[in-house]
Amino acid sequence: MKLLQEKIVQEGKVLSENVLKVDSFLNHQIDPVLMQAIGNEFAARYKDAGITKILTIESSGIAPSMFAGIILGVPIVFARKRKSLTLSDNLFTSKVHSFTKNETNDISVSKDFLVDGDTVLIIDDFLANGQAVLGLLDIVEQANAITSGVGIVIEKGFQTGGSIIRERGIRVDSLANIKSLANGKVEFFEEDPTA
Ligand code: 5GP
Q: Which of 52, 22, 192 is nearest to 121 (CA)?
C-alpha cells in the first residue's frame, strides 16, 4: 500500500536492524485518515470472506480494526493483555511472548464475544516473529471458530512470523512488507507476496 509505505519512509524511525518505531501515526499518535485507508483496504480484501468478527490485540490493532469493522459491518473484539477486574473466569487465554518488551504475558478474550461458528479476520499492527498472531489463532481455535485470514499493517518479512503463519496454510495480507532495516534504512519487498 503506497500511502503507508510513504508514511513509513517519511516518519518511521529505525531503532535497530529489527525494530521500527512508528509512534507518530500508529503506536502512540494515530493518523485517522491513514487508519481509515488501511481499514478500507482490509475490508476490500475480505469483503467476500463471510467475516463475522474482527479479532485484534490491544492497543495498536484497534484503530485499523475499527475502520475495517465499519465497512464489513462486524464487531471488533480485542484481546486484553492484562486481566481486568471486570473480566470473569469466562475466558479464552493464551501465552504471548512480546517481541518489543521481551516478556511473556497471558492474553485473554471473553467467551461471550468469540463463539463456535464465527469466521474471524485477525488484525494486528506488526508481524515480527508471529507470537501475537499465534496467540490469537490459538484463541480462535479454542472458541471453535474459523480464521479466514490475518491482516497486518506492517510485516517485517525478514523475521520469521510471516512464514510460520503462512506455512500453517493461513492467509496473511500485509499492507507493507519490510525487507530490511539495515543501515538505518527501510527497504520494502517490491510486491506484497500475498497480493
Ligand atoms: P510478534 O508477536 O510477531 O513477534 O511481534 C508483533 C508484536 O510486537 C506487535 O503486536 C507489535 O506490538 C510488536 N512489534 C514487533 N516488532 C515491532 C516493531 O518493529 N516496531 C513496533 N513498534 N512494534 C513491534
A: 52
Domains, the chain, with CATH or none: 2-83+92-187 (3.40.50.2020)
100 lines ligand 1 (CB under 6 A): yes
- Which residue did the predictor score with more confidence, 64 or 190? 64
User: Angle at which helices 62-72 and 32-45 pack, to 10 degrees?
Assistant: 50
pTM of the model: 0.96
What are the grid coordinates assigned to 64, written together?
485499523
Q: Which residues pair with 91 in a beta bridge?
A: 110
Locate cell 471453535: which residue?
Answer: 144
Distance from the CA of 127 to the center of ligand 1, in angstroms?
Answer: 6
Please tell me the distance between residue 34's alpha carbon and the centre of ligand 1 in angstroms: 19
The Cα angle at residue 58 between residues 111 and 16, in degrees rounded to 5 = 140
Count of other CB atoms within 10 angstroms of residue 11: 15
Mean pLDDT computed over 6-21: 98
